[in-house]
Amino acid sequence: MQQYEVFLKKSGREEFRHAGTLDAPDPEMALLLARETHSRRAEGAEMWLVDRAYVFVADTAQLSVNIDKPHRHNDGALVAARRKQDRKSRAVEPSHRPLIPTTLSKERL
Amino acid sequence: MTLSPGGGEYVLALADDEHMIGARHTSWIGLGPFLEEDLAFCSIAQDELGHAISLYELVLSDKVGIGIRDDFEARDVHLDRFALQRSPGEYRSCHLAERGCTDWNDSLVRHWLYDRAETIRWTALLDSSNEHLAAIATRALSEESFHLEHAQQFMSRIAPARPDPIIGSITKLLPIALGIWDPVDGEPEAVADGVTTATSAELAEYWELAVRAELSDWGLDIDWPTGTSTRDVQNHRRNRTAGFDGFQADLCKVIDVDPAARW
User: Fold this and answer.
1) Cβ–Cβ below 8 Å for B157 and A32
2) Structural domain for B32, as ranges
3) Residue in A23, A25, A34 closest to B157 by CB
4) A92-102 per-position pLDDT tens digit
5) Is residue B262 one of the residues assigned to a domain?
6) What ipTM does this complex have?
7) What is the CA radius of gyration of chain A?
8) CA A20 to CA B146: how far, in whole Å?
9) Residue B153's closest chain A neighbor by CA?
10) Chain A hits for B40, Cβ within 8 Å
11) Which domains does chain A have, with CATH numbers?
C-alpha cells in the first residue's frame, strides 16, 4: 500500500486545499478510492493526489528559528497610523506637518 | 405512465435484484479489507439501494396509485412494506443477488459479475417506452460506471496476484450468476411494450462476451458452466435461494418493531 495526499478544489476561484490522506495499492486505485473517501458528498469539483513519497518534508528546527521575529509581521498598522496622523495634521496645519509623526517615530522606529 | 403487468414484473425483477445486492453488500460495513475499500464498497451498496427505491416507486405508483412526487410519508410507508414485507414468492430477485457472501473473494467476484450484468441491463432501458424508467436508467448508469470500474480495477489487481481463491470464487459463482438472465414470465410483454429494448437472452450474450474477455485479460482459465444452472432452479425467479427467510427476517428487524412508524 502507498500513502497518497488528497487535495480538493471547489468550483470557482477557490484554491486546492489539503483534504486528507488515503492508502491505496497504486495511483489508479488511489484515484478511484479517493472519490469515495474524500468527495462522496461532492466536497470537491477537482481533485489532486500526490504520492507521499514525492512530498519533501522540511526540517522543523530550521522553521522554528523564525518564530520570534515579530518585526517580520508587517500588518500595515504603522503605515495606517502615519496616514491617519497625516490627515489630522493636514486639517490643522497643512504646510507644516512632519514627514514622520514624532510620537510614532519615538515609539516604533 | 402505467406499466403492463408484464412490464411491472420485469421492473420488479431489477428492483429486487438491486435491493438484495445492495443489502448484501452493506454487510461489509466496518469489515472491508481496508478503510478506503470499506467506504467505496458501502457507497456502492448505498447506490444500489437507491436504484431499488427508484424502481420500487415506479412499480408502486401503478400498484397503489401513489405518484412518484406525491405525499412522501405515505409513499415511504408503502415502499418500506413493499420492499421488505412481501411473501418470499412475491420477490423476483435472482439467487446471485440474494445469497450471503461472508468471504471477501466471493463478494468481490459477485460484485464484478453482477455489475457487469447491471450495466448491460440498464443500457437496455435507456430507450424504454416508459419515460420514468428511461430517466432512472440514465441516472443509474452514471453511477454504474464507477461501480464497474471499481470491480474491474480491484479484480485486475487481485486476480493475477492471488489467482487460486479468485478462481475458486468464480467457479462457484459463475453458474449462479447465469440466473441473472432467467427471465420473469412477464418479460415477453415487457419487450412487446417497449419497456425494455432487449430480451434477457440477448443481454446474456453481451455479458458472456464481456466476462470471457476480462477473464482472458486477467489470465484466468475458467471453464464456462454447462448443464443445469441456477437459471433452471430459480423457476423464472419465483423460487428464493436457501437462507432467504433468515435474510428477510434480518432486513425486517427494525420495521417489525413498529410497522406503522413514520420516519
Assistant:
1) no
2) 5-257
3) A25
4) 655 555 566 55
5) no
6) 0.76
7) 25
8) 21
9) A29
10) 32-33, 35-37
11) 2-57 (3.10.20.520), 79-109 (no CATH)
Q: Between chains, do B157 and A29 touch, taking CB under 8 Å as contact?
A: yes
Q: Is A23 on the interface with B (CB under 8 A)?
A: yes
Identify whether the C-beta of residue B234 lies closer than 8 Å to the C-beta of residue B182: yes
Residues 6+ apart with CB under 8 A from B46: B22, B26
- Put simply, whether A41 touches B (Cβ < 8 Å) is no
Q: Does the beta-carbon distance from A29 to B154 stay under 8 Å?
A: yes
Is B263 within the bounds of a domain? Answer: no
Q: How many C-beta atoms lie closer than 10 Å to residue B216's C-beta?
A: 11
Quick one: which H or E segment has residue B179? none
Nearest to B232 by CA among B107, B77, B95, B135: B95
Instruction: Please enumerate in sequence order all residues whose Cβ is within 8 A of that of B60, keeping only pairs 6 or more positions apart, or say none.
Output: B66, B75, B78, B79, B82
Contact B39 A24 (CB under 8 A): no
Report CA torsion sign: A41, A43, A48, A49.
negative
Phi, psi of A18 (to 5 degrees): -65, 130
Q: How far is B117 from chain A (nearest CA, A)?
A: 21
CATH number of the domain encompassing residue B236: 1.20.1260.10
Give the C-alpha separation, B251 to A45, whole Å: 36
**Of the candidates B259, B255, B12, B256, which has an alpha carbon nearest to the alpha carbon of residue B133?**
B12
What is the per-residue pLDDT across A48-101, written as a single tens digit (0 to 9) for each?
999 999 999 999 998 888 888 887 887 888 889 999 999 988 876 555 555 665
Nearest to A28 among B34, B37, B153 (CB): B153
Contacts of B154 in chain A (CB under 8 A): 29
Name A47's bridge partners.
A8
pLDDT digits (tens, 9 = 90+) for B115-169: 999 999 999 999 999 999 999 999 999 999 999 999 999 999 999 999 999 999 9
